[in-house]
């Protein structure tokens, strides 16, 4: 919230003094007061100012501004700004007047004379805002007085935090004096009439002192204005139009607000759109109906935040002229008159687009043409042109009507009716010059005249009248089709009650049977029948039917005979199977169902041609000498039919965007044949409609717009073809190519852009363009383009198609830049490669130096980067970029970076015992710390990874490795190894025995080690495993196995080695046993003097006490012993028992 300070009502003495000195002849008039500046807090008042107009020439110091907030204040001058305090500007604000800069004068001294009629601005010298005083431009001088609000004399009473009230609750007044003139009559008052507390609010007064409120933004600028020109009229379907305009105060945004009618028609309001140079392109709703639409237009300056007053504009959309065309036809070569109706002027053309007009007007007469030709026409109303539509000038082939011959008629017989339709496909209708006369014998020609509009010529048909001894009075052919699947007779000759099939019309065989789907089996020929008569003097002996099927354009060729079997005589006035008859009439018939499947033929127009041969006699009722042909006077009897193959589909797209000039052609149809056609237009079912193919067998469905057409059904006489493959019509595409000319200057913010781009469309030749550059250019070539990507929208004003193309305009002399300099891995290990990557303008050359060495260069690749590699470095590497150049453009740079180089790792020197006993431990160490210990064989010995302490697991060897990993980018490792041998700790035992006569201590193992003997603490000289003992006492042996030692002790209490001569086991504990404990006795045996063994023991020591093995005391006597000593010869001798 802005701080506003009300001034106290003080200095009442001063007020009275000034009241006594009033004089109004030299009083200035107050024009404006900015009372709500855009500053905040403690600086808002610093940026407020007052504008007044002088009425006399006077020094600046003469003018003083007073302000108060008394609702009825008059002549209470609180001295708050004085011209006496004019000084140099010391604030950061600026003052301009772009519309009359030459009128600006800046007053920094109280002595400056300000002329009469000048506009004077009193503003604090330390103001901070930027102001444009163009609003004061009126042909007079503008004097801006910078006033020191901190001066000591006279002391201002100007509040830096805000002097004027933003939203006063009572009247405020301003008064400016001129020297002794208090000018109280020119006091200006304003009150609390503000709509809002808004930055930029000011009060203005007219000559009578009436106040008004306004806001020209923070800079006090003039609001912009716009003078719109006439908006260009457009045609329905156009999406843009243009409007010329002029503006003031450089607005850069615009807002268009459409009326309700325009918005409901699809128009879109534009809010703060970028205001391009005149003319302004305005977007139009393509769905808006013709008419006039209005909008309000406002322009805004984002620099000042001010907007213009609304201006009304209108857009007129003109209707595209309507166009209704009617095709026409003629018979044979000649001119065709085509006509059309339109609300505009019609022009006729030879082609779908472009070309010169053939004629103008609603009617166009073609030159003489011999075949059907398509012409094109368009209508123009004002500047609006319709889409071109096709119209066909159809040339029909002149047809000679053909008829089946009338069989010979018996004199005075009832004549048959002449057919009113020919056998052509399609048939020709017409009239005959008379009915057949059977009263006169001979041949008479009857004339057939086609009805109008069928391109048929007159023709003659001969009819013969005979006396008739025998003959045929009715004939028919057997056909089966979709109407009669089981088949029936179709009458050929005969009439009335004589017809073979009364339910079928006369001559029903001699007609167009219609079109049939190939291989449908819907049309088969099965034979025929005739009815014969014979006079009493005549005879009929037999009948044969001949048939042939051939293309209408080919001759008949060889006929196939079909013998007609005798079927029935006339019996009591009727034939078997029905039908009236006369005596001597006969019926001959052969019918074979499916004799000939005519749908198996290839597609085309065919003729089933038949005639009959009757064998008989005209003047004898018993002979068969005569033959009569019933062959239509040599023309035979012909049924026409068509076999329809699968239709072919082609299409043409609309020639205009959103137009309906598209066509779908169904070809490979029968020429000039009617079909029922149905299809789907997108999801909407169309038809069935009856359409006739043209002379080329083509049906054209026209007037189609873009969309998907599917589910085509073409129905022939019997059966139909279905095409489920969608046919997609698309609007035309406006093809356009775009080219450019790159900028050719070293581009920078101060260098003008001189690139250009040109769009070349291919179409009608009439286009509109809209580029998305800052100028919104509307020509094929956009100029003054800076490097960058640009879009252009081109619209073909005839086809109403548009296309957008994009192109990037470069600069052949681009001011190159370094976008980044980066190092690769850092730190790295000594001996590795230092890598730097430079990114910038592609193709530019960069100069650089390494560790202050001479400069080198590298070229940035197409991606705008390059690497600088320094191989096998040993110390830190610093790169310094000094320049980047491209063509003639160079830029000095100072990018730098450094790669730190580290020393490779070292494992140091290992110390510690290399031989370890199996029950021992040791610790390895290295002169380099921080490494990891490992053992090659943890089954022999393990080592602590950190402390190096080795623990024996089993005997053997293991290699201890000390590994030191690299740091600071060194990824390699250093290792030192030492082999450790683990020796088995020996186990020693010692035993004593007599060897010979000496008591000997023996240590085990007995080899592979060294020996040291001692008695008590005294070492002995013996170094072998045996020691001869001469003195009682404790003996110790120590053995050494590869540094591993063990010892054992034996206490010798007796070293007696003689065998006792006797024992006295009497219980006195003396010499109780036969003592051999110093010997190694494997077995002892005792025999009496009779040689009987009385005692034995293995591993003997000192057990025999004169008893037998059974435990009985042996008598005192001498006994024989055998001592088996380990490894020695048995010892024998005598021992006595003496108790």
Automatic annotation (TrEMBL):
Domain Ig-like: 320-396
Alphabetized UniProt keyword annotations: Signal
InterPro entries the UniProt entry points to: Cu-Rt/internalin_Ig-like (IPR014755), Ig_7 (IPR044023), T9SS_type_B (IPR026341)
Source species, domain of life: Bacteria
Annotated signal sequence range: 1-22
Keyword Signal assigned: yes
Pfam families reported in the protein's UniProt record: CHU_C, Ig_7
Protein name: Gliding motility-associated C-terminal domain-containing protein
């Amino acid at each position: 919230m802005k701080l506003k300070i009300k001034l106290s009502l003080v200095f009442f003495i001063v007020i009275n003094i000034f009241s006594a000195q009033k004089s109004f002849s030299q009083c200035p008039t107050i024009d404006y007061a900015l009372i709500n500046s855009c500053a905040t807090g403690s600086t808002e008042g610093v940026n407020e100012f007052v504008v007044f107009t002088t009425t006399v020439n006077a020094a600046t110091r003469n003018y003083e501004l007073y302000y108060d907030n008394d609702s009825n204040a008059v002549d209470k001058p609180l001295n708050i700004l004085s011209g006496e305090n004019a000084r140099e500007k010391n604030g950061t604000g600026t003052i301009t007047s772009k519309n009359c800069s030459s009128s600006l004068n800046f007053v920094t001294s109280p002595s400056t004379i300000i002329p009469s009629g000048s506009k004077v601005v009193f503003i604090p010298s330390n103001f901070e805002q930027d102001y444009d005083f163009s609003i004061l431009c009126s042909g007079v001088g503008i004097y801006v007085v910078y006033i020191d609000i901190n001066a000591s004399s006279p002391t201002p009473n100007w509040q830096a935090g805000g002097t004027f009230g933003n939203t006063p609750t009572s009247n405020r007044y301003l008064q400016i004096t001129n020297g002794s003139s208090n000018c109280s009559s020119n006091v200006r008052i304003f009150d609390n009439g503000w709509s809002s507390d808004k930055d930029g609010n000011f009060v203005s007064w007219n000559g009578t002192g009436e106040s008004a409120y306004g806001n020209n933004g923070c800079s006090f600028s003039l609001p912009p204005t716009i003078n719109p020109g006439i908006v260009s009229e457009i045609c329905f379907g156009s999406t843009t139009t243009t409007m010329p305009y002029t503006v003031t105060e450089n607005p850069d945004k615009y807002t268009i607000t459409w009326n309700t009618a325009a918005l409901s028609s699809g128009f879109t309001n534009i809010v703060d759109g970028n205001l391009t140079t005149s003319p302004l392109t305005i977007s139009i709703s393509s769905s808006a109906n013709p008419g006039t639409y209005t909008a309000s237009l406002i322009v805004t300056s984002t620099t000042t935040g001010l907007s213009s007053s609304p201006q009304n504009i209108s857009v007129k959309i003109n209707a595209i002229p309507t166009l209704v065309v009617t095709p026409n036809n003629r018979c044979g070569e000649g001119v065709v008159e085509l006509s059309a109706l339109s609300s505009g002027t019609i022009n006729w053309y030879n082609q779908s687009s472009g070309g010169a007009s053939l004629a103008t007007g609603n009617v166009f007469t073609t030159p003489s043409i011999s075949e059907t030709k398509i012409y094109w026409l368009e209508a123009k109303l004002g500047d609006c042109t319709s889409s071109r539509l096709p119209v066909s000038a159809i040339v029909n082939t002149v047809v000679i009507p053909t008829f089946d011959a009338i069989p010979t008629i018996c004199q005075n017989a009832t004549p048959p009716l002449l057919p009113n339709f020919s056998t052509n496909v399609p048939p020709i209708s017409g009239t005959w010059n008379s009915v057949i006369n059977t009263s006169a014998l001979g041949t008479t020609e009857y004339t057939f005249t086609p009805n109008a509009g069928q391109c048929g010529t007159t023709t003659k048909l001969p009819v013969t009248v005979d006396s008739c001894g025998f003959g045929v009075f009715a004939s028919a052919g057997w056909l089966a089709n979709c109407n009669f699947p089981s088949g029936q007779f179709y009458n050929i000759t005969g009439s009335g009650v004589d017809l073979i099939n009364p339910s079928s019309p006369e001559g029903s065989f001699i007609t167009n049977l219609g079109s049939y789907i190939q291989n449908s089996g819907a049309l088969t020929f099965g034979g025929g029948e005739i009815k014969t008569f014979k006079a009493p003097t005549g005879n009929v002996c037999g009948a044969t039917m001949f048939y042939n099927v051939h293309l209408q354009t080919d001759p008949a060729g060889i006929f196939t005979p079909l013998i007609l079997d005798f079927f029935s005589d006339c019996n009591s006035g009727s034939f078997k199977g029905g039908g009236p008859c006369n005596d001597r009439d006969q019926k001959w018939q052969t019918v074979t169902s499916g004799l000939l499947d005519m749908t198996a033929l290839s597609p085309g127009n065919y003729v089933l041609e038949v005639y009959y041969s009757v064998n008989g006699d005209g003047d004898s009722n018993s002979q068969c000498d005569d033959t009569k042909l019933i062959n239509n006077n040599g023309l035979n009897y012909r049924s026409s039919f068509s076999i329809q193959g699968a239709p072919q589909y082609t299409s043409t797209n609309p020639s205009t965007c959103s137009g309906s000039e598209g066509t779908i052609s169904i070809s490979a149809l029968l020429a000039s044949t009617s079909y029922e056609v149905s299809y789907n237009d997108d999801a909407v079912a169309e038809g069935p409609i009856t359409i006739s193919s043209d002379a080329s067998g083509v049906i054209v469905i026209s007037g189609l717009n873009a969309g998907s057409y599917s589910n085509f059904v073409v129905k022939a006489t019997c059966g139909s073809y279905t095409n489920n493959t969608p046919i997609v019509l698309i609007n035309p595409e406006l093809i356009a190519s775009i080219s450019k000319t790159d900028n050719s200057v070293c581009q920078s913010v101060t260098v003008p852009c001189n690139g250009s781009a040109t769009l070349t469309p291919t179409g009608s030749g009439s286009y509109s363009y809209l580029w998305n550059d800052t100028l919104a250019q509307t020509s094929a070539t956009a100029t003054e383009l800076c490097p960058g990507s640009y879009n252009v929208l081109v619209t073909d004003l005839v086809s109403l198609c548009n296309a957008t193309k994009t192109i990037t305009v470069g600069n052949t002399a681009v001011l190159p830049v370094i976008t980044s300099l980066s190092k690769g891995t850092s730190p790295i290990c000594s001996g590795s490669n230092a890598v730097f990557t430079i990114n910038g303008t592609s193709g530019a050359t960069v100069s650089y130096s390494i560790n202050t060495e001479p400069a080198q260069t590298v070229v940035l690749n197409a991606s705008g980067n390059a690497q600088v590699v320094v191989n096998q470095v040993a110390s830190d590497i610093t790169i310094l970029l000094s320049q980047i150049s491209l063509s003639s453009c160079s830029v000095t740079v100072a990018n730098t970076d450094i790669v730190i180089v580290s020393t490779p790792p070292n494992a140091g020197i290992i110390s510690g015992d290399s031989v370890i006993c199996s029950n021992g431990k040791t610790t390895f160490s290295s002169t380099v710390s921080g490494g990891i210990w490992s053992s090659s064989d943890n089954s022999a010995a393990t080592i602590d990874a950190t402390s190096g302490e080795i623990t024996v697991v089993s005997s053997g060897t293991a290699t201890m490795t000390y590994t030191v990993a690299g740091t600071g980018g060194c990824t390699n490792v250093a290792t030192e190894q030492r082999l450790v041998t683990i020796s088995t700790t020996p186990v020693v035992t010692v035993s004593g025995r007599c060897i010979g006569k000496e008591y000997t201590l023996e240590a085990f193992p007995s080899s592979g080690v060294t020996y040291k003997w001692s008695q008590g603490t005294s070492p002995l000289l013996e170094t072998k495993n045996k020691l001869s003992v001469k003195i009682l006492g404790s003996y110790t042996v120590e053995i050494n196995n590869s540094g591993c030692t063990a010892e054992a002790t034996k206490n010798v209490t007796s070293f007696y080695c003689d065998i006792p001569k006797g024992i006295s086991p009497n219980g006195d504990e003396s010499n109780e046993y036969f003592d051999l404990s110093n010997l190694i006795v494997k077995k002892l045996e005792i025999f009496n003097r009779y040689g009987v063994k009385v005692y034995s023991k293995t591993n003997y020591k000192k057990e025999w006490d004169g008893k037998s093995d059974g435990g009985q005391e042996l008598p005192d006597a001498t006994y024989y012993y055998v001592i088996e000593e380990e490894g020695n010869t048995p010892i024998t001798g005598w021992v006595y028992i003496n108790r």
